[in-house]
Amino acid sequence: MFERFTKDARAVVTGAVEQAERGGVQTVDAGHVLLALLDREGSRASFALAALGGGQWLESVRQALGEARRRGGLSQAEADALAGLGIDVGEIVARVEEVHGVGAMSGDRKDKGWWSGRRSFSREAKDVLERSLRIAVARRDRHIGDEHILLALTSCPGVPAEVLADHGVTYESVNRVLYGEGEAKAG
Fold it and tell me: Where's the Clp R domain (predicted)?
């Protein structure tokens, strides 16, 4: 499948691996894919994000992804649902971090030297990449671009889609900017 990726899409995938390495984790997740996508400039996805006001909220998205990682990958909607059952996720995170250190629930290993080799992709990250292929095929595009990855991130359930939607970036809004009529259409 990787051979069908454009240069920009490949850069997103390798950037996601770099994001995981910087974070000291062995598994690349969909949040890493989103962070790598946010780092891109001069691509169709970066155009779409900019058209949707990305310059104003990129740091907020990064912070929200970091908070979700601290919550062990729980989305805000999941944390809110648990709060409705009387479970305070913030309190649980605070207690775990008090005993085991900040970031203990993120699944990040502190003994980074134990493992060497390739980073694996989580099921969620694989789903995003597979969905990007399906989106490209459905649009009859020959190659998978970073715009297809962005569309996949907005349509796969999970933290990245929730965080993007909180900032008005939905499948429909990205699709409208990329393929719709008018001045906002990406070229």
Answer: 2-187
pTM: 0.79
Place of tokens 């999970």: 158
Amino acid at residue number 94: A
CATH no. of 2-71+118-179: 1.10.1780.10
In this structure, what are the phi and psi dihedrals at residue 120, rounded to the nearest 5 degrees? -90, 160
- d(CA 112, CA 127) in angstroms, rounded, equals 26
Task: Report domain extents, the chain.
Answer: 2-71+118-179
Handedness of CA 61, 155, 79, 20 (dihedral sign): negative
**Under 8 Å CB-to-CB from 30, ≥6 apart: which residues?**
122, 124, 125, 127, 128, 153, 156, 158, 159, 160
Candidates 6, 7, 11, 12; CA nearest to 153 is 12
Task: Give me the residue label for tokens 């493992």.
Answer: 115
Task: Report the C-alpha gap between 66 and 166 in whole angstroms.
Answer: 15
